[in-house]
Specification:
Number of helices: 8
Distance between the termini: 50 Å
Number of strands: 12
Helix content: 25-40%
Shape: elongated
Structural class: alpha+beta
Order of helices and strands: EEHEEEHEEHEHEEEEHHHH
Number of domains: 3
CATH architecture of the largest domain: 2-Layer Sandwich
Strand content: 15-25%
Radius of gyration: 29 Å
Length: about 400
């Protein structure tokens, strides 16, 4: 069986990248981008909740008749890796992309020795490349032949292909058994040997549809929230309502995209910690000296609400009171701003007339301390001191 190498890892002097991949005609976008994000999520240990890679993560993804099968692991599982920084642990995804019109699979794809040979032959020679040879590290096309065996008769296993659910399978079944059933689907994916379900719930690049968890022998489903399309370009478009009510697409600036990415990271961290977004925004406002009230409560994001949802009189009254609180806070801010402006104007006039400004200092340090204490007591309660606490 013929296929193409698909390897995502790093080298000594080059950061993580797609070292080997089929040409763009064989593996076009957006399938190409999907395969890259899938491979990166398999070896994603940047999220602390995911944990380290404790065992090789056999993985597969299929889009129409294009299939990627491989494993995510630390590179030293496949071969010796020399590095000046001994504390740096290198990860990688090592796979093969093939075009299969007949739903068959060879067990050779799950032989660790195959990937050790691939690592020694195609990755190790690139490890010490210098900067001038960077062209040799970007999506090199390498065809490979895989030895095939007679097809085994295997019992069909249920494979999930819904984007709103992740199916957790028993780790008692082998990758060969489960992947043989998975490739009969038009679009699906599978990852073996994750540490926990948090990896799925807090995904940042790709949401897996089928997984096994180390030590888990039961089967169950994890409900996933609808996955929004990740930003694959620096410039994106967003819908805005025009003057006549028509929706128009407006390009986002680089700064807006960066802020959106930061907001996504903060939101994911809040979700993992079980902190309400509204509570966080209130604490953030108080932390930097702003007084703010937020109308309504945070909706359950697992459900969709229509504009026709009935609102109880009690809730409507609460919303009305909250709106009044917002107006009071805004008016108080504007009043204080006006008073500060008048005070500054008065000091300027005094300086013009007399050439100096007379300011009455507090009578004692105790007076200063009392003032600061009163300001602290008047501020909103804050449960988060810094962003690092999240």
């Amino acid at each position: 069986m013929k296929g193409y190498l698909f390897i995502y890892t790093r080298l000594d002097k080059f950061d993580y990248r797609l070292l080997y991949a089929p040409d763009i005609k064989f593996l076009p976008s957006p399938t190409r981008d999907t395969f890259i994000n899938f491979a990166r999520e398999v070896i994603n240990t940047d999220n602390i909740g995911n944990g380290s890679i404790k065992s090789e993560r056999w993985s597969m993804i299929k889009r129409n008749n294009l299939i990627l099968i491989g494993l995510g692991c630390y590179n030293n599982l496949l071969g010796h890796v020399e590095s000046n920084n001994e504390k740096r642990v290198i990860r990688g995804f090592f796979g093969i992309v093939f075009d299969s019109f007949s739903p068959t699979l060879t067990s050779k794809m799950f032989d660790l020795e195959l990937y050790k040979d691939i690592f020694g032959k195609y990755v190790s020679p690139l490890w010490n490349l210098q900067k001038k040879d960077e062209f040799r590290t970007n999506s090199v096309i390498q065809e490979i032949n895989i030895e095939t065996y007679d097809k085994q008769d295997l019992e069909a296993i249920y494979i999930n292909d819904s984007p709103n659910v992740c199916r957790v399978h028993s780790d008692k079944s082998s990758p060969y058994e489960l992947f043989s059933s998975a490739i009969t689907k038009k679009e699906t994916d599978f990852v073996f040997n994750l540490n926990n379900s948090d990896h799925v719930l807090s995904h940042s690049l790709y949401a897996f549809k089928n997984i096994t968890i180390i030590g888990n022998v039961s089967g169950y489903d994890i409900s996933l929230k609808p996955v929004s399309k990740k930003r694959e370009k620096v410039i994106e478009t967003t819908e805005k309502v025009g003057k006549e009510g028509h929706r128009t697409n407006k390009p986002l600036s680089r700064k807006e995209c960066e802020l959106a990415e930061i907001a996504d990271v903060i939101y994911q961290r809040l979700k993992r910690c079980g902190i309400s977004t509204i509570d966080f925004l209130k604490a953030l406002s108080a932390r930097f000296g702003y007084s703010a009230q937020f109308v309504g409560e945070e909706n359950d994001e697992d459900e969709e609400y229509s504009d026709s949802t009935p609102i109880s009189e009690e809730k409507e009254a609460l919303q009305t009171n909250s709106q009044e609180d917002v107006l009071i806070s805004i008016n108080k801010y504007n009043q204080n701003k006006k008073e500060r402006h008048e005070s500054i104007s008065s000091l300027k006039e005094q300086f013009k007339k007399e050439g100096y400004i007379k300011i009455d200092p507090p009578t004692s340090l105790e007076e200063i301390a009392d003032t600061e204490l009163n300001e602290t007591l008047d501020s909103q309660p804050n449960t988060i001191e810094t962003l690092d606490d999240i």
